[in-house]
Design brief:
It is built from 4 helices and 4 strands; from the N terminus they run βααββαβα. By secondary structure, the chain is α+β, with helices and mostly antiparallel strands.
Amino acid sequence: MPKYVTLMSLTDQGIRTIKDLPQRLAAGRKLVESTGGKLLDFYVVMGEWDYVAITEGPTDEAALTTLLALGSGGSVRTLTMKAFEMETVEPILGKLP
């Protein structure tokens, strides 16, 4: 399944309700699973971003559905990157001139 790296920053609403993080994380996990995906890792980080999530999903459309639902909750803003494992990249590299 495709993998995604999502960087999240808290909104004003998100920081006001930060104590609800465990419940929001559980709900987020269920949301990912409801679209056929899986939350592989989740980190609270310091710096420009507040959280990093590593997920996998059956399709880009399923991932987008999850991200739109997550964003519509109003607690986080997201930036998502599709991740490619080396076993996928190596054959592509072999095709380069």
